[in-house]
Amino acid sequence: DPNLVLKACSCAAIISASVVSLRPLPPSVNHSEWVPSFNRNFWAGTALGWTYHYSRTTMNWTQARKWCQTHYTDMVVIQNQEENDYLVSKLPNKNKSPYYWIGITKNHKSETWTWIGNNSTWIGEQSWAANEPNNNHSTEFCVEIYVNRRENRGKWNDEKCANGKYPVCYQGMYLKLFM
Ligand SMILES: [Ca+2]
C-alpha cells in the first residue's frame, strides 16, 4: 500500500539520522518485505529508508553494479528530480571526469533508457546535460552523473559502459521510530 509508505516517511522525518535519507520504497526490493508496522511495544513504528554509498575506486559499469550488489542493495535508482538533487548534495565533488555511475542503462541504441530494479523509464526535463545524450559513436549505453561545481552539476551524460567511474549504491533498511 503506497499510502502506508508515504505516512511512514513523513513521520520519520523527526528522527532522521545524519546518514540516512528517508525515501519511498526502494524499487528493487521485494515489496512484501518492506511493509511498515506500527504500534509494536515500545517502538512507535518502523519505516523504510535507504542510505547512499559510493566507492573511491573507479570501475566499469558492470563491475560497479556488482560491487553495489555485493556490499549494499544495488546501484542507485533515481525516481524524481528531488531525489537526484539530494543524492548530488551528498556525494563528494569531482573537479573533472571520472564522475559517478547511476543505475540507468540500455543494451542497444534503439532501446529506451531503463532504470535497473524497477524498470522505470523516468527521465526529468532537466536530467540530461546540454547536448546529451549524444550517443557518441553509437556506443554510449550507460549513464554517469556529473557531481561538480559547474552549471552541469547533477546532470547526466551517456557514456561507454567500459569506462571507469565511481559506483553509487543504495542500501535499503528499516528504521525504528521513537516518539
Ligand atoms: Ca555522452
TrEMBL record:
**InterPro entries (alphabetical):** C-type_lectin-like, C-type_lectin-like/link_sf, CTDL_fold
- Domain named C-type lectin: which ranges? 47-170
Name of the protein this chain belongs to: C-type lectin domain-containing protein
Report the source organism: Mola mola (Ocean sunfish)
Give the taxonomic lineage as stored in the record.
Eukaryota, Metazoa, Chordata, Craniata, Vertebrata
